[in-house]
Amino acid sequence: MGKLKHAGLVCAGMLGGILISLQLPALAEKEDVRNRLPIEDLRIFAEVFNAIKQGYVEEVDDKKLITHAISGMLGNLDPHSSYLDADAYKELQVGTQGEFGGLGIEVGMEDGLVKVISPIEDTPADRAGIKTGDLIFKIDNTLVKGLTLSDAVKRMRGKPKTRIKLSIMRKGEVKPIELTLTREIIKVRSVKSKLVEKGYGYLRITSFQESTGAVVAKHLTDLYKEGSLKGLVLDLRNDPGGLLNSAVGVAAAFLPPKSLVTSTDGRAPDSKHKFFATPEDYLRGTRDDYLRNLPPEVRKVPIVVLINGGSASASEIVAGALQDHKRAIVMGTTSFGKGSVQTVLPLPSNTAIKLTTARYFTPSGRSIQAKGIEPDIVVEESPNGNSSSSMRLREADLEHHLANGKEEKAQTPAPDKSPQNKTSEKTKSSSPKNDKDDNSRSDDQDDAPITTRELASKKDYQFMQALNLLKGLQIIQPR
């Protein structure tokens, strides 16, 4: 009994120490924290801990037990909260710089299996044909069931030029799919652009990295060197998101200065924040303002933003901001719906936890979480309305996903007097098939969804519709 009491005190003290080390203002500033600790529940935890230590068939290291306990606590909160061991924490830091080793897929967990959220464009996973919604149930000879997400990701990462076998279950396929991939150093080029024809530009963002805002500014400047633009297609399809400050910077490139881009709201005081199109909110440190020398025409050019079910997080923030300010017409299918904020809180031994601390809201107060951005004009991936949109995994499909939350009272966005906004309502139309209601799927290969390597081509139906809309705006807008 003495050992059990001692174990209980150790565990209670350890958990209390964790809470202090996280420096959560909502807890640390209250004097009655100790009185609010669930002592009885901690005693049960201590009993389980002691039972494992005393009676489990094999000896288990204390650190391993505590790590699994922390992972379990976080993993059962929502799909985006997790414990990061030293390797995972390092990979997270490296990944925001746009370079990491592995296969190139954004993943989550569902029913104990790894579920593909989105393959990253032009990576081994993308080239092998891995699709959103695929369930990975075996990595090499190891079953995924029983592994944590961190463990599964660690097994998929590895040295470049080494091979890995993935066993996949895909909706609509009777037999499992076996794929062998070769790992690479994934260098994600987050921004691509081109002049599709005279006067019309195309800008694609595949992820929001540390440098994305500055790179977008450079691409826009280069596009204008070719002459004035009559319209721009901003492609955010299959963009899984990334850094918040980069999203604010991209939105700021197109919005009037000081416009509200997004707001966050959570329980802790420092989770309540508004982000504006100002250098203070999109720059980190004391770097030069990369938007300072942007051609002024960029903030007036008519824009069509393309989104789909693979557009998540930061890309939803940009689309929602431009939509609410009536700065752009959003086209495509409903986005993924990841409207939650994750804060990385460092722990000892170069580990950390990634904790969901707030929800994102668009400038008008709409919650993105588990709902997504609905396009102004619904356009499926193929002319007949059939596409993979109904098959796509979305935030609302993830186990333990965070609820949408109460949408806050709408705030009136800054008015935009550009000619485009006088015509945008007139150009809205309804698609005969909405991606939320259409459960059909075409077996005709000619109508199959485009691959990422065909984007912004004549075979890209959504892009061609965006381009046609921009040309139409040029005809009907007042001179």
UniProtKB/TrEMBL annotation:
Q: Where is this region: Disordered?
A: 372-391, 405-458
The UniProt entry, under InterPro entries, shows: ClpP/crotonase-like_dom_sf (IPR029045), CtpA/B_N (IPR055210), PDZ (IPR001478), PDZ_sf (IPR036034), Peptidase_S41A (IPR004447), Tail-specific_protease (IPR005151)
What SUPFAM superfamilies does its record include? Answer: ClpP/crotonase, PDZ domain-like
Compositionally biased spans, kind Basic and acidic residues: 423-443
Give the Pfam families listed for this entry: CtpB_N-like, PDZ_2, Peptidase_S41
Q: Where is the PDZ domain?
A: 89-157
Write out the entry's keywords from A to Z: Hydrolase, Protease, Serine protease
Q: Which NCBIfam families match?
A: prc (TIGR00225)
Family of this protein: Belongs to the peptidase S41A family.
Return the protein name: S41 family peptidase
Q: Which organism is it from?
A: Dentiradicibacter hellwigii
